[in-house]
Design a protein that fits this description.
332 residues, LRR_dom_sf, 8-stranded mixed sheet, single chain, U2 snRNA binding, repeat, two-stranded parallel ribbon, alpha/beta, spliceosome, Leu-rich_rpt
Length: 332
C-alpha cells in the first residue's frame, strides 16, 4: 500500500480527458485512505481513484472545482457525512465494484444536491428489495442510476411507495444500517455466562474432601474436579456451545482436552469458590504431613529395634566373656 502524500499527488499523471476536463490520475496505487488532497490546489475537475484499497468515502478538503469522482474497484463500505460541504460541485460519482451493504449507508449522498449520476453496480446493496426506488426517492435530482436513465414512471412509483406515514415508516425500515465501529466508542464485548458449581455441588465436593483418607484419594478428587465431574454425582454435561466448538476444532485437526474447553467457558477449577480450592490444598497438605509422620515413626521404630538388637548382642557377648573368666582351669 502507498500513502496518499503530497509528493505522490505532484508526481501523478495530469491531463485533459476526452470531455475536456482536467483530470488527476491516482489509479492503482493501493491507497488505503483519502488524505492530503489539499495538495491538488483545487485544480482538477476529475480525480480517478480506481483500483485502490479505500474503505471510506471521506477526508476531502474544500474542492469547489471537482465535478467527477471515479472510485470503482475499491473497498468502500461507508460514505462520510457532509460531503456537500467539501464537494459543492460534485455531479458524478462512480462507486462500481465496492462493498456498500445497506440502503441506509447511502443516506449521506442525499445531501449532495448537485449529484446527477451515480453508479453502484456490483455492490451488495443493489440486491436489496426496492433498491432502485429507494435511491430515486432519497436523491430525487438523480438523472442516471447505474448507467440507466431514471424514467418518469420510476419517479412516480418511488413517490407513491414512500409517501405518507406508511411510506416514511417503510423508508425507515429499509434504511436500517449495518452496525459499524465508531472511532472512540467503547467496544461492547458479549457477556459470557458463568457456569460454576452450584451450592449443592460445592457441598458434595466438601464432603468428599473431608472423607478423603489418603493422598492418592485426594489426587483422584482433584482429577475429577479438573475434568468437570462432581464426586458422588453423574458427570456434568457439557453445554452444546462447547460441544460445537470442540467438534469444529477437531475437524481442523486440533484436539483439546476437556479441561481447556471448560476453562475458556468459565467451567473448571478457576470458577470454583476459593474456600473449596483452599480446602483441597489444605487436605493435600494434611494428608501429606500425616503420611510423612507415619513414615518417620516407622523409621524411628526400625532404628530403635536395630539399637535394641545391637545392645542385646553386646550383652550376650559380655556374658560369654564373664563366663570364660569365672570357669576353673583344668588341673588347677
Amino acid at each position: 500500500m502507498v500513502k496518499l502524500s503530497a509528493e505522490l499527488i505532484e508526481q501523478a499523471a495530469q491531463y485533459t480527458n476526452p470531455v475536456r476536463d482536467r483530470e488527476l490520475d491516482l489509479r492503482g496505487y493501493k491507497i488505503p485512505v483519502l488524505e492530503n488532497l489539499g495538495a491538488t490546489l483545487d485544480q482538477f475537475d476529475t480525480i480517478d481513484f480506481s483500483d485502490n484499497e479505500i474503505r471510506k468515502l471521506d477526508g476531502f478538503p474544500l474542492l469547489k472545482r471537482l465535478k467527477t469522482l471515479l472510485m470503482n474497484n475499491n473497498r468502500i463500505c461507508r460514505v462520510g457525512e457532509n460531503l456537500e460541504q467539501a464537494l459543492p460541485s460534485m455531479r458524478e460519482l462512480i462507486l462500481t465494484s465496492n462493498n456498500i451493504q445497506e440502503l441506509g449507508d447511502l443516506d449521506p449522498l442525499a445531501s449532495v444536491k448537485t449529484l446527477t449520476l451515480l453508479s453502484l453496480l456490483r455492490n451488495p446493496v443493489t440486491n436489496k428489495k426496492h433498491y432502485r426506488l429507494y435511491v430515486i426517492n432519497k436523491i430525487p435530482q438523480i438523472h442516471v442510476l447505474d448507467f440507466q436513465k431514471v424514467k418518469l414512471k420510476e419517479r412516480q412509483e418511488a413517490e407513491k411507495m414512500f409517501k405518507g406515514k406508511r411510506g416514511a415508516q417503510l423508508a425507515k425500515d429499509i434504511a436500517k444500517r449495518t452496525k459499524t465501529f465508531t472511532p472512540g466508542a467503547a467496544v461492547q464485548q458479549p457477556e459470557k455466562k458463568k457456569m460454576g458449581p452450584s451450592p449443592a455441588d460445592v457441598e458434595a465436593i466438601k464432603n468428599a474432601i473431608a472423607n478423603a483418607s489418603s493422598l492418592a484419594e485426594v489426587e483422584r478428587l482433584k482429577g475429577m474436579l479438573q475434568a468437570g465431574q462432581i464426586p458422588g454425582r453423574e458427570v456434568r454435561q457439557v453445554p452444546p456451545e462447547m460441544v460445537e466448538v470442540e467438534e469444529e476444532e477437531e475437524e481442523n485437526g486440533v484436539v483439546h482436552m476437556q479441561r481447556e474447553i471448560q476453562t475458556e467457558e468459565g467451567n473448571g477449577v478457576e470458577e470454583m469458590e476459593e474456600d473449596v480450592v483452599e480446602e483441597v490444598q489444605g487436605k493435600v497438605e494434611e494428608v501429606d504431613v500425616k503420611e510423612v509422620e507415619v513414615e518417620k515413626e516407622k523409621v524411628e521404630e526400625k532404628e530403635e529395634g536395630e539399637e535394641g538388637e545391637k545392645q542385646e548382642s553386646e550383652e550376650d557377648e559380655s556374658e560369654d566373656d564373664d563366663m570364660d573368666e569365672d570357669s576353673p582351669v583344668n588341673g588347677s
